[in-house]
Amino acid sequence: MSLGYVYVLGSARAGDRRTYVGWCVDLDQRLTAHNAGRGARSTRGRVWVLLYAERYATRNEAMSREVSLKRDRKFRAQLALALAPNNMDRRRPRRQAASTRSADSG
To answer: How far apart are the C-alpha atoms of 57 and 20, rounded to whole Å?
Structure first.
């Protein structure tokens, strides 16, 4: 039997915080795969950081825990609060839409 890990990844982009729950046998390799676009389809195109991990004696235990973590939205939301929205400070302020009509024309 080999070890299994269950993990929660987090990503913040322009104020959009997301989490992803998965299981693996090598955490470093799996995080690298997610960030290289070779992970799950829902994780592609984002930069992910490891927020939380647990180690289990078997893969089956890790897979079972993965299911429970996916259902625990409150726990994942608490973890997501730790994410600093890395693009929030560099984002340009929204421009006001210019009116094409003047107030006098009408």
So the answer is: 22
**pTM given for the model:** 0.74
Q: What CATH number did the domain enclosing 76 receive?
A: 3.40.1440
What phi and psi values does residue 73 have, to the nearest 5 degrees? -65, -30
Strand order in the sheet with 49-56: 16-24, 4-13, 49-56
Distances (CA, A) of 5 to 18, 59, 82: 20, 7, 21
Range of the domain at 37: 4-80
Is the Cα torsion angle 50, 52, 56, 58 positive or negative in sign?
Answer: negative
Q: What is the mean pLDDT of each run of 10 residues along the chain (106 residues)?
A: 90 86 95 90 89 96 96 93 57 39 47
Domain count along the chain: 1
In terms of DSSP H, where are the helices of 17-72? 27-35, 59-71
- Identify whether 42 is part of a domain: yes
